[in-house]
Amino acid sequence: MSEQKHECSPENASKFLDWIANRGGVAVWQSANLSNLGASWSAPFRSPEGEVLTKPTWQASSEPSRVITDASEIVVVTRREVKRVKIAVERGSGLSVNLTSASSRRLRKAVDDATEALQKETGIIGPGASYHFDFDEADRRIAVVTVPGRVVSLAAWRDAVAELDERTRWEVHGAEGSRILPREPHGNAGGEL
Q1: What single DSSP character describes residue 5?
Q2: Structural contact between residues 69 and 25, judged by C-beta atoms closer than 8 angstroms
């Protein structure tokens, strides 16, 4: 049985490709912190000098749960918002802040409902909805529930970016050697004709 594909955002895709090509892969670290069990972190497996890196945070387990060296094992996910949930917080132990019980129930229901709707829409069973915290226009605390909107393998993302770069850049030869410049809207690379 193959492992589930690892998810990354479009903002981190080029970083993940670099880690696979130059840093020994993407190390996935699961949380060992009992107060944050669902969390995970992605980091390069090796330093630029080739040394195996230690865990990225004190909360991570002592060893990575997985080291990904193949771009086809990672998917680039663009998420879409499906709901905003008003939340309230209360003081936890020490310096922590927790959702109130009522907010936690509302948020869990919103995530479950969004996951169920996504599964009905796509026919795919698996992880779906997630959330992040934000503020609305009136500066009230909210949780934004999102689901995957577009999913593409990191390998396909890399190929699409390379193709786009080929269409939108051109090479300029000059006294300093060759260099690549972005194309201007009318094909002029910023110089006077």
Answers
A1: P
A2: yes
Phi, psi (deg, nearest 5) at residue 89: -120, 160
- What is the tens place of the pLDDT at every residue in 175-184? 555 555 554 4
**pTM for this structure?**
0.69
* pLDDT tens track for 105-162: 999 999 999 988 888 887 766 568 889 999 888 888 999 999 988 888 899 888 888 7
Task: Give which of 91, 87, 98 is closest to 35, Cα–Cα.
Answer: 98
Tokens coding 148: 């995957």
Question: Would you put residue 92 in left (φ > 0), alpha (ψ -120 to 50) or beta?
Answer: beta
Residue whose entry in the numeric block shows the structure tokens 């269409």: 167
Domain ranges for the chain? 6-73, 75-152
**DSSP reduced 3-state for 190:** coil
Of 81, 78, 86, the C-alpha closest to 102 is: 86
- Chain-centroid distance of CA 52 in Å reads 23
Cβ(53)–Cβ(90) below 8 Å: no
